[in-house]
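Take a look at my tokenised protein here and describe the backbone shape.
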Amino acid sequence: MYAFLFVSHLSMVVQAFLIHRYSDFPGRATLVAVAWYGFNDHVDYFVPIVGTPHHSLLPVEPVVNGTVQHVSAAHEIGAAGVVALTILATILAVATWRVKISRNEGSVAA
């Protein structure tokens, strides 16, 4: 199951970069996406809305009486990884957007 989640999410990243090459997203769309994913990461790993954090169960986290115990370092490592990847994706999206804008400005000036 975890391999499927990894591969499917990686495929979504590839899909996003392919779509971004031929579509025209305004810069504020990236801002909305960053706000949404930041909120999602925050709720999943740091401040749950209801009960415990909402992320997928990690295999190393014990379940006691039907409740996931977030006592292992895997939770913190997973949270740090997710936040780092969200930041990296944001940087790449903005960089790609800026290159695309600069190329369009260059073609208009020529």
